[in-house]
Amino acid sequence: MDLDMELGDYPKQFAYEDLQLLTDNFDVRNVIGRTQFCKVYRGKIPQGWNEMQEQDVTVKIWADTVMMKGEIILHPAVAHNVFRFFVLNWQMTRPEDEITFLTYPSISHHPNLAKLMGYLHDEDHFGVVYDLKPLDTVCNFIAEGTFTWMDRIKVIFQLARLLEYLHGQTPQYLVRNFSAAHIMVDQVDMDLNPVLFEFGMLTGGMIGMKDRGLSLYPFAAYGYTDPVLRMLGVWTDRTDVFTFGVVLLELLCKCAVDGIGCRENSIVPNFLYGVAQEIYDTVKSRCFYEQSRILSLVHRSFRTEAGYDTGDGLKLAKLAMKCVQMDDERPSMGEVVEHLKTLHVIRNYAELLLLGP
């Protein structure tokens, strides 16, 4: 796809100065966070600018090309500066693939995928503008008490159905770097819909299969690397299941993927899914089945919240652990969705949560 071709009314082509205007010159107060390869800002289109209505938007800049207020980032931004490598040719084709993907008819209207308003492409910069009114990322909401049990259930269920949809296409899409930092909570009408907005490692579908091996790619987002991927070096749909399981654990535990710290006398990060696995394996090895130990993966503050059911907490903890098991033991995303439909909260509050059939 030629990024400079005529694309009609949408997506629009923006200049770098336009994105400076929308973000108040990339003001640090408008920074939402970083994705694996980009920096993300809140933006606002002024009333009447380019004959447009006033509108809140999300602006994403590929961090390896942008110079902002004296800060020069020469490599893709990865949380905690880990896995800072990639190939230049791949770097330049990924934004192009994102535009191709988001403008494809069967994709462009999906409620949980970012709506592309326009893009920036010049010699020094690449960025996109989404028709997305950002509240915050799921990553930034993980530990927040204001992000309730019901809010989390809605996010979990919609994200599961999104991955089921992407995996169900022919050929299937693989996200490969699904993470809480790559999901925005949209505040339109305060419906709190989760929206995936990072596609830097997307493969399959109508953009074609990108290298499934590790020769040109980072493993995945920091803290979400599938142990099976490390061993075999090949992505499958079960790799996305693993990363979904990690996000599910984060939402249940109110603990970010890297929030556990390091093991004693070690500099190796003690990732959330590893700690959860140790707890789960301990329970499974005992003759007496200790539900309370599995429920310890669910933050105790949820027990007094509206819609919480102990049986649901147990089911979700078990589901999360199934998703992060070895590859041949993981469910498909279709099976995950069917499992979620058995939850008390889904069966009894689907209308309140604005969840379709």
TrEMBL record:
Keywords: Cell membrane, Membrane. Residues 26-342 form the Protein kinase domain. Its main location: membrane. It is found in: Cell membrane. GO terms for cellular component: plasma membrane. GO terms for molecular function: ATP binding; protein kinase activity. It comes from the Eukaryota. Coiled coil: none annotated. This is Protein kinase domain-containing protein. It comes from Rhododendron griersonianum.
